[in-house]
Automatic annotation (TrEMBL):
Protein name, entry field: PepSY-associated TM helix domain-containing protein
Annotated Pfam families: PepSY_TM_like_2
Sorted UniProt keywords: Membrane, Transmembrane, Transmembrane helix
Domain of life from the UniProt record: Bacteria
Transmembrane domains' residue ranges: 20-42, 158-177, 189-207
Length: 208
C-alpha cells in the first residue's frame, strides 16, 4: 500500500522538471547561442580586426528651432526642447529625444552612445550651426555590446534579466534531473564535479 505513492511522486516530478527544463531551454536557446558566440569574440577581441566607419555632417538649425534654445535651462544638463530634438532626429537620425544635453552659454553638447558605436552632436547657440558625428564599429562590436548590455536601452535590460532567470531555471532543473537519474549513470557526479573543479582551479592558479 505504501510503495505506490513514491513512484507516482517520482513520475510527477520527472514530468514537471522535464517540462520546465525544455521550456526554459527553448527560451534560452537564442540567447545562449548569442552569448556563447560573443563570449568568443570578446575573449579574442585582439585577434578580430574591426574598422570603425565615421560619418560627419554639418547642418544649420532653423531660426524657429534655434529660438527655442534661449534662454538656457537653469541646470547644466537638460534635454533639448521637443521641437528641436524632433528636427534633429528627422534631419540627422540622431535619436536625441529625451537625452540629457550639456548646456553652456555658447554651445550645447549632446553625447549619443549606442550599441556598436558612438555619436555626438553640438549646437552653436549664436549661429545655429550643428555638427554631428557618428561612429559605426561593425556588427561584431554591436553583438559584443548586446552581450555586455552597453548602451542597449531599457527593453534589452529587461530581456537580460528574463534571460538570466530562464538560465537559472534551466540549470537548476537540469541539476535536479541529474540527481534523479544519477543512480543509473555512474559518470554523472564525476562530470559535475569536473565542471566545478576546472574553473575553480584555473581561477585560483592563473588569475592574479
Amino acid at each position: 500500500m505504501d510503495s505506490q505513492p513514491t513512484p507516482r511522486r517520482r513520475a510527477y516530478w520527472l514530468k514537471t522538471l522535464h517540462q520546465w527544463h525544455w521550456i526554459s531551454s527553448a527560451l534560452c536557446l537564442l540567447g545562449m547561442l548569442l552569448f556563447a558566440v560573443t563570449g568568443l569574440t570578446l575573449n579574442n577581441a585582439s585577434h578580430i580586426e574591426a574598422k570603425a566607419v565615421v560619418t560627419s555632417r554639418q547642418v544649420q538649425l532653423p531660426a524657429a528651432e534655434l529660438a527655442q534654445l534661449s534662454p538656457p535651462p537653469a541646470q547644466k544638463k537638460a534635454p533639448l526642447p521637443a521641437a528641436v530634438a524632433r528636427w534633429l532626429d528627422d534631419t540627422l537620425d540622431a535619436a536625441s529625444a529625451g537625452r540629457a544635453a550639456e548646456w553652456s552659454p555658447d554651445e550645447i553638447y549632446l553625447s549619443l552612445p549606442r550599441a556598436g558605436g558612438d555619436a555626438w552632436l553640438s549646437i552653436d547657440l549664436a549661429s545655429g550651426d550643428v555638427e554631428y558625428e557618428r561612429t559605426d564599429r561593425g556588427w561584431i562590436s554591436y553583438l559584443n555590446d548586446l552581450h555586455k548590455g552597453r548602451n542597449t536601452g531599457l527593453a534589452w535590460s529587461w530581456f537580460l534579466d528574463i534571460f538570466a532567470a530562464a538560465c537559472l531555471v534551466f540549470s537548476l532543473t537540469g541539476l535536479v534531473l541529474l540527481k534523479m537519474h544519477a543512480g543509473n549513470r555512474s559518470a554523472t557526479w564525476p562530470m559535475v564535479g569536473l565542471g566545478v573543479v576546472i574553473p575553480v582551479v584555473l581561477a585560483l592558479l592563473f588569475i592574479h
